[in-house]
C-alpha cells in the first residue's frame, strides 16, 4: 500500500506533467487520477481545491529547483571562483533544463498567478528563492550590488529560457547574456 506522501507526490507530478503538456485548463481531477495512477477520491482527499493543487505543484517544483541550484551555488563558493566557472555553471543550468512538460509547467503556473491572485504568494516565494540564489552567485563573482542585480539576473534567465522554449534558441545564448550582465566577455577575467 502506497504511503500518503507517495500518493501526494504522484498527484503533484501528474499535475506538472498535465500542465506542461496541455496547459492549466487540462487539469481535471479525473485526468490527474488517471495520470497519477491513483483513485479519484485520492486526488480530492489530498487536495480540496484546484487552487491548492496548483499552489502545491508550483511550490514543489521550485523547492526541487532551489535544492539543485543551491547545491550548484555551494559548489561555486570557492574563493577562486571566476567568470569561467560561472559560465560553466550557467551552461549546466541552461543546458540541463530540457524543455519537457515538467519544465514548461512553471511558466504556465507563473502566468496563471497573474490571473489568480491566490497563487501570487507562492509565485513570490518562488522568485524570492531564485533571487537569493542569483545573489549568491553574483556575490561569488564579486559583482557590485548583487542584491539589486539579482532580480534582473533572474528576469533575464526567465526571459532567455522562455525565448529558448518558444524559438529553440541554444542554451549558449543564456550564458552569453549573463556574461554581458556581469560586464565580462568569455576571454576576460574579473
From TrEMBL:
Print the keywords alphabetically: DNA-binding
Q: Which residues form the signal peptide?
A: none
Using the record's annotation, list all stretches that form the HTH tetR-type domain.
5-65
Residue ranges flagged as DNA-binding region: 28-47
UniProt cross-references to SUPFAM superfamilies, sorted A to Z: Homeodomain-like (SSF46689)
Top-level taxon of origin: Bacteria
Q: Which Gene3D superfamilies does the record associate with it? A: Tetracycline Repressor, domain 2
Q: Which PANTHER family match?
A: HTH-TYPE TRANSCRIPTIONAL REGULATOR PKSA, HTH-TYPE TRANSCRIPTIONAL REGULATOR RUTR
Q: Know the name of this protein?
A: TetR family transcriptional regulator
Annotated source species = Streptomyces virginiae
Starting at the broadest rank, the lineage of the source organism is: Bacteria, Bacillati, Actinomycetota, Actinomycetes, Kitasatosporales
Amino acid at each position: 500500500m502506497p504511503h500518503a506522501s507517495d500518493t501526494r507526490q504522484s498527484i503533484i507530478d501528474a499535475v506538472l506533467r498535465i500542465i506542461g503538456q496541455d496547459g492549466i485548463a487540462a487539469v481535471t481531477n479525473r485526468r490527474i487520477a488517471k495520470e497519477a495512477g491513483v483513485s479519484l477520491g485520492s486526488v480530492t482527499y489530498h487536495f480540496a481545491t484546484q487552487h491548492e493543487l496548483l499552489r502545491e505543484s508550483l511550490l514543489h517544483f521550485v523547492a526541487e529547483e532551489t535544492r539543485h541550484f543551491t547545491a550548484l551555488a555551494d559548489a561555486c563558493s570557492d574563493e577562486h571562483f571566476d567568470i569561467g566557472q560561472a559560465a560553466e555553471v550557467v551552461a549546466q543550468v541552461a543546458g540541463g533544463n530540457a524543455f519537457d512538460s515538467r519544465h514548461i509547467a512553471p511558466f504556465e503556473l507563473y502566468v496563471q498567478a497573474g490571473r489568480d491572485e491566490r497563487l501570487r504568494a507562492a509565485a513570490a516565494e518562488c522568485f524570492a528563492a531564485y533571487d537569493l540564489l542569483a545573489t549568491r552567485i553574483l556575490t561569488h563573482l564579486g559583482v557590485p550590488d548583487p542584491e539589486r542585480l539579482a532580480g534582473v539576473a533572474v528576469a533575464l534567465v526567465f526571459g532567455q529560457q522562455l525565448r529558448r522554449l518558444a524559438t529553440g534558441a541554444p542554451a549558449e545564448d543564456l550564458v552569453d547574456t549573463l556574461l554581458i550582465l556581469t560586464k565580462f566577455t568569455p576571454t576576460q577575467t574579473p
